Amino acid sequence: MNDIAIRVEDLGKQYRIGALQKSGGRARYRSLRESIANTASSPFRAAGRLFSGRAGADSSTETFWALKDVSFEVKRGEIVGVIGRNGAGKSTLLKVLSRITEPTTGHAEIHGRVGSLLEVGTGFHPELTGRDNVYLNGAILGMKRAEIVRQFDEIVAFAEVEKFIDTPVKHYSSGMYLRLAFAVAAHLEPEVLVVDEVLAVGDAEFQKKCLGKMQEVSEGGRTVLFVSHSMTAIVQLCDRCLLLKAGAVSLDGVASRVASAYFSDATASATGEFDLTSHPARSPQSTPTICRLRLYNARGTPSTSLYPDESCSIEIDYHSQAPIKDPRWAIAIEDYLGRRLLTLASYFQPGNISNLSGSGTVRCLIGPLSLGTGRYLISVSVGNKQRELIDSLDNAAWFEINWNNNFANGEPYSQIYGPILRQSHWETLYAS
Amino acid sequence: MPAEIELEYSDAAVTVAADESPVPVTIIEPSRGWVSLKLGELWEYRELLYFLTWREVKVRYKQTALGAAWAIIQPLFTMLVFSLFFGRLAKVPSDGIPYPLFSLAGLIPWTFFANGLAQSSNSLVDSSNLISKVYFPRLTIPLSAVLSGAVDFAISFALLIGMMAFYHRIPSSRCVFLPLFFMLALVTALGVGLWLSALNVEYRDVRYTVPFLTQFWMFATPIAYPSSLLHGPWRTLYGLNPMVGVVEGFRWALLGTNTAPGPSIGVSCIASLAILAGGAFYFRRMEKTFADVV
Asked: Angle CA(B149)–CA(B155)–CA(B160) in degrees, nearest 5?
């Protein structure tokens, strides 16, 4: 009985749809004029609303459930990932569990000290020095002053900002700022940690550091609930994963299984055409350079299903507002555990790639991939001559290798042989 | 027989776990109706309150070129304007005190009140990034906004002391009551601030209402004129405005005017506490929607 860390029962959260902003699912504040107009027509009901804590919730405004009948349990020491499309209710779930917003229905209990991390650097003030911000941010995240004092040197060392700790953070580079912000958060020591997409910010090196720290946390026996779009992170860190769909848990199980199921679902394209502007990992406001991806089989038809020895090609539609000279395109293929199998790049060999300006399409011709049965993920990126990343999208698309799992002579294939199939020629050179 | 043994085992396990650490349990449920103030939790978060207040003060002084000088400039210039127009030209009586000193003694607590009110009523909206990302007792936000004004008050109070020295006024032993009048101003500012900050989340009109409100309130408070202009029961009724009690109290304690706290101060205190209690409960009631709306 005591090994449950988080218990969620029939949790639901309702928002008013009439008052919703386009993004983020937050209700719009109201103007007094509307309320006065309402008050004039029905003064008593309006007064009741003023005190009800949900002013303006007329019966006429439509509502929608961001979370509906969500139930699950997390055991002590378990690391559970939460995935789902934008708007599936992931953030709402975290907000309810970290008590930022109240649920409309249901019940949840968390056993142990809770730390929630929906953003790094909450409360950071640009005018204050690094030192001041560490104390402030620590206090906001719920650390005791003594705890911060004890860990101060460690935090500063982790962030690698020793020299600048007494400089106002407005003079920090964005990297330093993020490192310091994450360092404070990383030294939280709650028994139950609730983390949102914190790892999605910063450069690759910083992300690696964050991931390492998360791993450390998880090995320390703490309970973690972790929302991410990065399947790699989810599969690496989590034992278990919840898939949210339209506010409800649609799948709950071993992380790698759920992640793989999510992909075939999220990038639901049996046709081999992937719209990358509305991909779940895209933030709603961004204007991506990489717009669409099409995977063609050997016959030249878009498909997500290939044979191991089938030639294929990938076309990428782009749109770039700023002209970019000598773009560097790359496609990487990973298995659903997040292991990178290979990278194909336009700059590995001479090719015929023109500068980006406006819209266009590039094509990458790939010979047989020689991969074994399974589901694979495609990541795309484009950089400029200075090797700066212009746009990239991990797990942008997927495909399956379908095969009867028998080599030409009928010998069965097994996963333990590894993902790459290679024909080889065997002969005996010497026999006594 | 085997069942019994198992039972013993599990009992033992439970006891050990309970002994090891009393695990705090957080219950998350929809709240209904009026909720408790959770003052205990507020006390647990007193360090955060301290840090938020300290941030408020530090940032305010860092972002302005004149920094702490503003705490003096505001009441000083208002005093000069009042002295010229009300004292010199309109010849407003001042209970036998030099008019500049008379008005300044009212302006110092008033400025603290008015700034506290303005800061706290905008505090929730200004801290929307905190509210939508982290949980902590929301009461700390308007509370820290009002408390941060105490530093300005201390600085401007030095100006008042300087003015008293200039007019050769020696404060009497009544000074010991000053903290009480200061508390009354603080409680009033916080009470009104709680109402307005919670309303401001839902109705952004509040931001524009506050300057009007403070302006009218100032004229309803005996700052430019003495309350001795009112007589009898009117004066007690006048005390419904808690700032009347504050300003009269300041003058009485520092300058020895004959505005000794009478029934009027009692009315002021009750009114102030009523505003605070109402504000706190209203705030707590509205709190659950802050993160969704702000």
From this structure: 115
Do A297 and A391 sit in the same domain of this protein?
Answer: yes
Cβ burial of A157 (10 Å; 0-12, 13-18, 19+) is exposed
Do B129 and A122 make contact, defined as CB atoms within 8 angstroms? yes
Distances (CA, A) of A208 to A119, A151, A215, A236, B75: 17, 22, 10, 12, 55
Q: How many CB atoms lie within 10 A of CB A342?
A: 14
Burial class (CB in 10 A: 0-12, 13-18, 19+), A273: middle
CA distance B65 to chain A (A): 13
Where do runs of H (alpha helix) occur along A42-187?
43-52, 90-97, 130-140, 145-159, 174-186
ipTM, two decimals, is 0.80
Least Cα separation, residue B191 to chain A (angstroms): 17
Distance between CA atoms of residues A376 and A337, nearest Å = 9
* B232 Cβ contact list (under 8 Å, min separation 6): none
Half-sphere exposure of B234 (CA within 13 A, CB side): 6
Mutate to test the interface with A, among B54, B203, B212 (most CBs of A within 10 A): B203
Q: What band does A20 get if pLDDT is binned at 50, 70 and 90?
A: very low
Domain boundary among A216, A236, A264: A264
In a domain, A199, yes or no: yes
| Chain A residue with minimum CA distance to B33 | A52
B156 vs B185: CA distance, rounded Å:
15
Q: What residue numbers bound the domain in which A385 lies?
A: 273-417
A116: left (phi over 0), alpha (psi -120 to 50) or beta: beta
- Percent of chain B at pLDDT exceeding 90: 44
Contact B220, B228 (CB under 8 A): no
pTM for the complete prediction?
0.72
pLDDT tens-digit readout, A236-281: 788 899 998 888 998 898 888 887 777 666 555 567 788 888 776 7
C-alpha to C-alpha distances, B51 to A100, A134, B48, B155, nearest whole angstrom? 20, 11, 5, 20
Question: Quick check: is A218 in a domain?
Answer: yes
The number of C-beta contacts closer than 8 angstroms across A and B is: 140
Q: How many helices (H) and strands (E) does chain B have?
A: 12, 1
Contact A140 B201 (CB under 8 A): no
CATH number of the CATH domain containing A184: 3.40.50.300
